[in-house]
Amino acid sequence: MRIEILVENKLGVLRKLTDVFYNMRINIEEIAQKSESDGALARLYLLISIEEEDHYMYERLVERLKLSIKEFKEAEMG
User: Fold this and answer.
1) pLDDT digit string (tens) for 24-65?
2) CB 36 within 8 A of CB 3
3) Is the four-CA dihedral 76, 35, 16, 50 of positive or negative sign?
4) I need a labelling partner for 49 at 20 to 30 A (CA). Which of 3, 29, 31, 71 fits?
């Protein structure tokens, strides 16, 4: 599954993201990051895999990101 995540470009945000993925047992297979033009935001492109098929994983992941990471802005599958 490919996802794109927009976050504030701050120290420690990537660690917070990986903690959420770890706790949800989601493996990050690929990751790329691009800062937005003003440098205040960063867009992360991830290829993830989950051990079990779960049709609601994306929705649960987004909710967990919203609750756990104050720098989180938005996410979309792609």
Assistant:
1) 999 999 999 999 888 999 999 999 998 777 778 889 999 999
2) no
3) positive
4) 71
